[in-house]
Amino acid sequence: MAQATQTVDVEDLKPRFGEALRKDERPGYEGYLIAPDRLTEFAMALRDELKYDLLSSVTGVDYLPEDMMEVVYHALRTSGGGPLAFKAQVPRANPVVPSLVPVYPGADFQEREAWDLFGIRFEGHPDLRRILMWEGFEGHPMRKDWHEAYYEEEGKPFKNRWPEGKVYRIEDKVPYGHNVAFPPEFSVEGWTPEGDTALYAGLGKITSKDNGHEEGLDTDEIVVNLGPQHPSTHGVFRMVAKLSGETIVDLKPVMGYLHRNHEKIGERNTYLMNMPFTDRLDYFSSMSNNFGYALAVEKLMGIKPPERAEYIRVMMAELTRIANHLAAIGFLLNDLGAYFTPVLYALEERELILDVFEATSGSRMMCNYYRFGGVARDLPEGVLEKVRALVFERLPRRIDDLDRYLSGNEIVQVRGFGVGVLTPEKAIAYSATGPLLRASGVPYDIRRAEPYSIYDRFEFDVAVRYHGDVYDRYLIRMDEMRQSLRILQQVVRDIPGGEIQTGKPQYQVRVPAGESYGRVEGPKGELGYYLVSNGKPNPWRYHVRAPSFINLTSLGELCRGNKVADTVVILGSIDIVLGEVDR
Amino acid sequence: MFGTGILKGLGVTLKHFVGSYVDDIRWLGRRYFNDEALKVRQGPKGTGVFTVQYPEEKLPVPEEFRFIPFLVYDEGAEGQREIRCTSCGICAKVCPPQCIWIERSNDPQSGRPIPTPKEFFIDIDICMNCGLCSEYCPFDAIKMDHDYELASFHRHAEHIFNMDRLLQPASYYASIRPTNYAREEAARAEKEAAKAARKHEA
Q1: Phi/psi at A527 (nearest 5 deg)?
Q2: Which pLDDT band, with edges at 50, 70 and 90, does B29 fall under?
Q3: What would the 3-class secondary structure string for A517-535 be?
Q4: What are phi and psi of A75, to 5 degrees?
Q5: A71 in B contact zone (CB under 8 Å)
Q6: Taking 90 as the threshold, does the pLDDT of residue B158 lie above it?
Q7: pLDDT tens profile A478-494
Q8: Residue B100: closest CA among chain A residues belongs to which residue?
Q9: Among the four residues A178, A290, A295, B45, which has the most C-beta atoms within 10 Å?
Q10: Using a CB-CB distance cutoff of 8 angstroms, which residues of chain B are in contact with residue A341?
Q11: Rg (Cα) of chain B, in Å, rounded?
């Protein structure tokens, strides 16, 4: 792809921006601070001159003591390398920043999320509505002075658990119905939700004779809701489509039905307590979730796990990738109408991988296995032999079997070729990551672009496909499983003995003040954790850059011009997990 | 030719279909309800039908499997319960959903705290089975159980486990986690020996 010969650096932009652009010099922080009124111009320069073409993460931080809100952006070059952080600071009383959607369309959902949870207004955003909370919700829950319904204390551990632990149920103290507060003069009976009107109004109109709409033929447009209760959505997820005949004119996803404010919970938790909570994000690949979070905290603490732990980590992460892709392919075939035979063949292999997880971590899906500076426990006896049998014999054979079974199938091909095409330019613009980006011909894989852990010592290829359609997104998962097997074979061959934890295991880790962004190439894309620590036992800010959520930004683009029946397949080919989308 | 891909795919399903019978014949009627066969069926070399006939057949859980925690007590010489827990509160502090409540007991005369807890509660509706309590317990007093069949009819009456419900003898612990138990006992014996040696020196 593009040669990494950029000589322009952010420093070179300084003369142009003067006072508006300065280095973030708070201790433990990195990146740049940019004045909000020059933000759009700065982003344009970043994208066009410095080639930071993919805006990976947008989030807000509420600095309550400083009476300030901060919007944190992470942009990266798809030609490789790490992300660049830049921030805009605004007063807490009136937090307004210009929207970056015109520059990076991928900021769309993330800015809506920041508006929803922090109340930061993004001027110029085309459709600034709540995204995770419902329309009509009062307040912005991620603000530090907002308290949840079952609020007990600012941070865990709660003081009434020990030594005077008088057990009670919170539901008995605050019974159902009393845990909701309404604004004054509000009556529930007299309220009609207006959210959907705004939603429907935001849908695009037929503007040309594209989309199978012939000029002069006066057709009606109709709005169809798919979901939230629909098996094809893999959870509770709703798609609102505007149709002309059977062709999709525009489509918007509606999410948040599974929202539990994971990040708020994370900020009440101590650092270690968050580890089992990360399992519940993308519950298909909890080991990867653990990995990213462990990296982010280790970066803040400045520690590294011992050699053996690194190998075990990589082994678990790659097994997770295989398990995830098996399920993704299986359920994609389900969406195609191959009802349950392929998915059961795929899940058979996944079960064997989960057996390995269960034997090492104690749980099949909620692994909670990684610790800061190592892993929870060493591999029990017999596990390595089982992994060896899997990665050298069983899995390669079974993946070939699956390939023979499905790849040549004419129905899969007809439903996949040219359906839901995402061009490389669009993929980058919409901040797609993971298989979605690589199937569009952009070979960006964090394991290669910015190797973390010990990925720099393994031999593997970055899988890439070029058509960007459903079929290529299916194929790329096959490719990635094979590459993961290659890595696993090297891991099993080279894994050394020794310690699995740096220092003594601690339940209360000391995390110095500062920020960190730890990211891994999760099975679904870039999984990033943005942490802000103020030196206390609980993180000040805990943000998850969820790949499933951000990959959905391109769903509308993917579906436009296709038939209704194809939305199901297109959604399946993105591979989302609602636990991560809604958080 | 159009359709060869489908035919090839159907060949794979046919292979699976035939394979299930081949595996039945291989075990000659002993394929089900047989621990030996279950192990092979569920292992990397397994072929044929993959499912388990629950609840007649159950997958054996590995040693590290974790479910709701329990408290360990040692059996004294006269059969009395010697509770290992010292109510130090680490488990309550490390518990992510904060489902552990501990009441420390005080000496009736001096009013000073004594190690054995007065009460110990775990709300199993809230417990997320993460295993952090047992991982960070310095006294090996709280451990994760293997019993996952806990469904009950009375959620409000039965789902807060008190100390009586939580206590299990060390022999039970040794039976579900033999390797861990042996390792911990060895470490403890070593510590005791070192302590005795130091006493001896002094």
Answers
A1: -105, 115
A2: confident
A3: EEEEEECCEEEEEEEEECC
A4: -115, 150
A5: no
A6: no
A7: 999 999 999 999 999 99
A8: A161
A9: A290
A10: 13
A11: 25
Query: Using CA atoms, how far apart are residues A46 and A53, in angstroms rounded to an integer?
Result: 8
Per-residue pLDDT band at B109 (split at 50, 70, 90): confident
Task: Give the ipTM.
Answer: 0.90
Whether residue A401 lies within 8 A of chain B, CB to CB, comes out as yes
Mean pLDDT for chain A overall: 87
The interaxial angle of helices A564-574 and A307-336, nearest 10 deg, is 170
Interface membership of A443 toward B (CB under 8 Å): no
Q: What is the pLDDT of residues B35-69, one digit of tens each?
A: 888 888 888 888 888 888 888 888 888 999 999 99
List, as one string, the DSSP characters of A228-247: SEEGGGTEE-EEEEEEETTE
Task: For residue A333, give the H/E element and its range.
Answer: helix A307-336
A348, A390 in Cβ contact below 8 A? no
A351 in contact with chain B, both atoms CB, cutoff 8 A: yes
Q: Does A276 touch chain B (CB under 8 A)?
A: yes
Tell me whether residues A363 and B94 touch, CB distance under 8 A: no
Find the residue in B nearest to A505 (Cα).
B136
Tell me whether residues A165 and B123 touch, CB distance under 8 A: no
| Contact assignment for B132 to A394 by CB distance below 8 Å | no
User: Which residue shows structure tokens 């952010």?
Assistant: A10
Q: Give buried/exposed letters for A425-442 (b at 16+ CB in 10 A, else e).
A: ebbbbbbbbbbbbbbbbb
Closest by CA position to A532, among listed A16, A114, A30, A190: A30
- CB-CB under 8 Å, B63 with A380: yes
List the structure tokens of A6.
């950029």
Which residue carries 């968050």 as its tokens? A274
The answer to whether B119 touches B167, Cβ cutoff 8 Å, is no
Chain B residues within 8 A of A271 when measuring between CB atoms: none
Residue contact A361–B64, C-beta within 8 A: yes
Residue A266 C-alpha, separation from nearest chain B C-alpha, in angstroms: 10
Give the model confidence (pLDDT) of A415-470 as tens digits.
Answer: 889 898 999 999 999 999 999 999 999 999 999 888 998 999 999 999 999 999 99
- Best of A344, A367, A405, A538 to substitute, by most chain B Cβ atoms within 10 angstroms, is A405
For residue B3, give the nearest of A358, A389, A410 by CB distance: A410
Supply A563's token pair.
């038939």
Q: What is the DSSP string of A30-41?
A: -SEEE-GGGHHH
Q: Is the pLDDT of residue B3 over 90?
A: no
Q: Which residue has the tokens 């020990």?
A: A162
The model carries a pTM of 0.89
Measure A394 CA to nearest chain B CA, in Å. 6
Give the C-alpha separation, A324 to A349, whole Å. Answer: 11
* Backbone phi, psi, residue B71, to 5°: -100, 140
Structure tokens at A269: 């938790």
Which pLDDT value is given to residue B14?
Answer: 92
- Interface membership of B89 toward A (CB under 8 Å): yes
In this structure, are strands B167-169 and B67-75 parallel, antiparallel, or unpaired? parallel
For residues B61 and B73, the answer to whether their CB atoms sit within 8 Å is no
Residue among B9, B62, B129 whose CB faces A359 most closely: B62
What is the distance of C-alpha A186 from the center of its chain? Answer: 37
| Distance, first Cα to last Cα, chain A | 34
Q: How far is CA B93 from the centre of its chain?
A: 21
Q: Nearest Cβ partner of B101 from A166, A404, A410?
A: A166
